[in-house]
Amino acid sequence: MKKAKKKINAAILIIGNEILSGRTQDLNVSFISNWLNINCGISVDEVRIIPDIEKKIIFSALDLSKKFNYVFTTGGIGPTHDDITALSIAKAFKVKYKYNFKAYSILEEYYGKENFNQAKKKMAKMPAGCQLIHNASSAAPGFKIKNVLCLPGIPSILKSMMVNTKKYLVKGPVSFNKSFYLLTVESKIALGLETIQNKFFKKVDIGSYPFFREGKVGVCIVLSSIFMKQMGLCAKYINKMIKIKKIKLQKF
Fold first, then answer.
1. Where, residue-wise, is CATH 3.30.310.50 in the chain?
2. Segment 235-245, tens digit of pLDDT
């Protein structure tokens, strides 16, 4: 995996009626985002949830692939009639949708020729020219075409496959983080944080998150940046604000 000097970003496209209806709770976004940040220095900057509708998949895949370095799709690559992600992605990039012989071979060996029915064979149909993402859990591979990586929606299987996406990714610069737990309310620090954020615009991201933990009510300020020196300087401004406003810090 090569390393880039500039920030590398990604989007996640969740595909599935079951997510939108509330029948299934998404568990993949937090895992993918955290995994990419820690292992690859890639930040997830947008998440979309769309139904199993071909036109919406085509539009969203193309739109996101133009805006971000990588797009990770989840869901819709199984054996049933509503698993239309592979076909839709093929149409999005105007390539043939056909059997990937390597994927076909993997699945045939996994299920055995006698049990390798049409539904299971469907999982070997992919956009022409794509690269496989190995699946050690249930054999059916995901795939990568252009800058779009397609993964299953089942969390346990997706988790086992993420490591196999690494070879296709350019590593971004490491993001540094620092947190302050303040025993105060957001309204007391809002103006000060805005002033500091404006000073470090595009260099340091400042997040403000209210918390109730161990009987304590407060605000967690999180600094995030790929520029260690700038983040250190920003932290000094935060500490100065804390002293001026006489806010107590809480350690957990």
1. 176-244
2. 999 999 999 99
Alpha carbons 24 and 196: distance in angstroms, whole number: 40
Provide the CATH number for the domain formed by 176-244 in this structure: 3.30.310.50
Q: What average pLDDT does this structure show over 185-201? A: 96
What are residue 196's phi and psi, to 5 degrees? Answer: -70, -40
For the chain, how far is it from start to end, CA to CA, in angstroms?
A: 36
Q: What is the amino acid identity at position 202?
A: K
Q: Rounded to whole angstroms, how far apart are CA atoms 137 and 158?
A: 9
CATH number assigned to the domain covering 8-168: 3.40.980.10
Can you list the alpha helix ranges (DSSP code H) found in the chain? Answer: 17-21, 28-40, 54-67, 85-92, 101-111, 118-121, 155-162, 186-199, 228-244
CATH 3.40.980.10-classified regions of the chain: 8-168
Q: How crowded is residue 45: how many other Cβ atoms within 10 Å of its Cβ?
A: 14
Contact 145, 105 (CB under 8 A): no
Q: Percent of the chain having pLDDT more than 90?
A: 92
CA distance 104 to 108: 6
pLDDT at 97: 98
pLDDT tens per residue across span 46-92 = 999 999 999 999 999 999 999 999 999 999 999 999 999 999 999 99
pTM above 0.85, yes or no: yes
